[in-house]
Amino acid sequence: MARRNFYEIINDSTINIKAEYDRLYDLYHYGVYADDSINEWVEEEFLHFDEDFRKRTISLEDFNKTFQFDFGSVSHGMTIEKLILFCEYLSNICNQLIKNAKYQLYTELEKDIQLLREAIGGCIDTLGLMLVQNEKIVIYVEKNPEALAVAEIVPKELSFPILEYNHFRLKGDLNKKKQILKAMADNIENQREDIRNINAQLESQLYQLMNKFIRHDHSKTEYIMGMSKEELEDVYDDIYQLWLLAKLEIDNRDRRKRMKGLLEKING
């Protein structure tokens, strides 16, 4: 049986995406506790949001129109991808409101925001996703224990892209994936000998693939030029997984030494 990819798995999920979307929409536009909705406060406070978030837009309507955020009250034709995007939209909008509101948010409104966040969290958890955040935005990506473990041991500027690689919007975006893989390849370049000493086959495969597919111009290799976009993306994803494995092998080397020394002392 062919292995299903992550996107096929979540699209086969039994989650009621229409009900999930309607619930989030109602909490954002109507609320439960407050007289004013979260959306009304966002409209009022929008110009206080961070400029690098709202860019040059001058109202929430302008923001939605500029970036083509079309989240209407009718959930007909709703997809998993749009539901995830709506969760990201609401999370980031709420973060901006809490951070930048000129006026103090009153208790009932804070309770509505908390209720909305809990609903988003439950939806995201059901989909098997996890929250990833940098200093600017929140996104939701596939839960990948290997990627999460590596993100904790690499430089801060690389940790977000490593996790972002698994975002649904990057599926089919070869340019963005290659950009992330280039940063990953640069990061591991000076560790080639370490990897060779641990796992020579892994070192050989990983560095050859990075050189041929990531560092060099594809037009120089006839075979690679003949590959379809789908085949090329599969290779990119394999390079990503091999890179994670290499990083974990390096991280575990010292741990294995420590455990060996500990067991020798115990078994003295």
Task: Name its key features.
268 residues; mainly alpha; two-stranded antiparallel ribbon; 66% helix
Straight-line distance between termini: 49 Å
User: What proportion of the residues is helical, as a percent range?
Assistant: 55-70%
Mean of pLDDT: 91
Computed Rg? 23 Å
Number of helices: 14
Percent range for β-strand residues: under 5%
Poorly predicted sequence stretches spanning 5 or more consecutive residues:
none
| Widest β-sheet, arrangement of strands | 1-2
Gross morphology: globular
Output the helix-strand order: HHHHHHHEEHHHHHHH
3D architecture notes:
This protein is globular. The protein has 14 helices and 2 strands; from the N terminus they run αααααααββααααααα. α2 runs parallel beside α6 and α8 (145-151) packs antiparallel against α9 (156-164). Helices cover 66% and strands 4% of the residues. The longest helix has 39 residues, at 229-267. The protein is mainly alpha-helical. β1 and β2 form a beta hairpin. The chain starts with 5 loop residues before the first helix and ends with a helix. It has helices at residues 6-11, 17-29, 38-45, 51-54, 60-66, 80-100, 107-126, 145-151, 156-164, 174-188, 192-198, 200-215, 222-225, 229-267, and strands spanning 129-133, 138-142. The chain has a two-stranded antiparallel ribbon.
